[in-house]
Amino acid sequence: MTSTTDRLDSSPTDTTLEHLDVIVVGAGLSGVGAGYRLSTEHPGKSWAILEARSSMGGTWDLFRYPGVRSDSDMYTLGYQFKPWREAKSIADGHSILSYIKETASEFGIDEHIRYGTRVVGADFSTAEARWTLTLDVTDESGTSQQQITCGFLYCCSGYYDYAKGYNPDIPGLDTFEGTVVHPQFWPDDLDYAGKNVVVIGSGATAVTLVPSMARDAGHVTMLQRSPTWISAVPGRDKQADKIRDLLPAGLAHSVIRVKNILFSTGFYQFCRRRPQAARRLLTNLSTKILGDEKLVAEHFTPEYNPWDQRLCAVPDADLFKAMKKGKASVVTDRIASVRPDGIDLQSGASLPADVIVTATGLQLLAFGGIEPKVDGVTVELSKQFVWQGAMMTGVPNFAICIGYTNASWTLRADLTSRLVCRVLGYMDDKDFASIVPQPDGPLEERPLLDLQSGYVQRSIDAFPRQGDHGPWLVRQNYILDSITTLRGDLGKTLSGTPRRSVRRAAGVA
C-alpha cells in the first residue's frame, strides 16, 4: 500500500516538517482503540497519538477520587478485540487504567504515543490537502512550540475540559474554614477519616463518592438540588461468569458483549417509549432496597423521565446500603449560604461539614480545545453538521470520536475508528487527497448531544449540530449503527478532491 506520505513528498510546497498520514489526538480509551484499528486495517500508513499529559489513560488516569469506577459494564466498555478477564463487570478506575495500558503494550500501540504534546493549533490547507498542527511539547527542559503535518486528523480527546471542572457560584464558599475539593482534582493527601463530608451534586461522580467515602468518614451527606434517577446494578455479572466457564475466552467475550448490548439497548428503548412504566420500575426497585417509600419519593423520584438525563448506576446498591447503615444520607434542598463550619439550606435546615466536595459536573470542551482552521480561517463549529457521528461539514480530512450517552462509550468509539479506517481506504481507492461530508439537501438542526443534563445544556451550543435523518442523525442505538455505519455508498455523502488536483495546485506535473 502506498501511503499518503509517499504520494505527497514530491510536492515543492513540502518543508522539513515531519509528516504523518494520520494523527490521533488523545491516548485515552478511544485513542488507544483508534491506534489498534489503524495498525491492523492500515499497516502501511504512518501514524502517531499525541497526548497532552505525561501518561496514557485519559479519564481513567486523570480521575483519582475515592471509588472512581465505570458506570458501564466492562464487557462493552472494554475493547471488542481485547477480552475483559477480571471478575467484576463494573470495574474500578485502577483496573480500567491497567487494562488500557496492557492493551497498548500488547499491540504495540504505546510505541506510537508522544506524551507531553498538546495540539494548540490546527490549520488545513486545501491547496496541499494536509493539516499543519502547532504543538506545545513539554519535556524535562521545559515547553517548546513545534509543528508537524498530517494527511488526516482524528480527535479522540472526548468532549470535556481536562483542565477545569464546572464550579457554580456557591454563596459563602470562600468563608468555609474546612477543605473544599473538586473530584476532578482530588488531592492525594486528603484526610476525611471521622469527619463530616458534604458532597454537592447527584450525578455519577457523587453517587460513586458517597458510599466510598462513607467507609471512613464520620458521615457523608449527598446534597442535591433535585432528585436523580439511580438504578442498582450487579457489580459482578453472574451470567457472564457462567458463560466464561463454558466457552473459550474470545468466544465468551463476544457472547457476553452481545448479551449486554441487547439488554442495555432494550432497557433504553423501554425507558424512552414507556416512560411511566420505567418510572414505576425504578421507584419500585429503589423502594425494595431502601424499604422506605417516602424516602424514595422525596429523593429518588425526579420530575424528568428516565434517560432524559443519563441514568446513574450504583453497583451492588452500595449507595443505598451506606444509607441503610446510617453512614450516608441524601438531602434534597438548595444552598442558602456556606458558613465557616457547614452549609445553611433554603429550607432553614443546616448541614455540618468539615469537607465539602463540589461534584457539580463537567465543563464541556470541543475537540480538547482545538479550534480547527481551514486555509487560515477558524471554522464556526456551531454552523457545521456531523456526519455518522464522526466527520464534520466544512472541515476536510477530520474526524471526532464521541461515544454513546446511553451505552458504553467504547461501542461507538470503536465503530467510529473503524469508519475512519474505511474512509481512509476509500480515499486510497479513489485517489482522493481530501474528503469532506456534504448534505444533499436541507437538514433540521438538532443539538449534538440530546440530553437535558446541566453539563450538556451549559455548553452544547458551541458544538457542531446533528441533523434529523440518515447519516446526519447521531443515533443512540448501537445495533442500528453497527449495521449501517460500515455499509453503504460513501460517495453519496462524501465529496472528495482528486490527488491530481492537489498536484496541479502545487505545480507538480
TrEMBL record:
Pfam families, alphabetized: FMO-like, NAD_binding_8
UniProt keyword Transcription, yes or no: no
Keyword check for Flavoprotein: yes
InterPro entries in UniProt: FAD-binding_MO, FAD/NAD-bd_sf, Flavin_mOase-like
Keywords: FAD, Flavoprotein, Monooxygenase, Oxidoreductase
Stated family: Belongs to the FAD-binding monooxygenase family.
Protein name per the record: Cation diffusion facilitator CzcD-associated flavoprotein CzcO
Organism of derivation: Rhodococcoides corynebacterioides
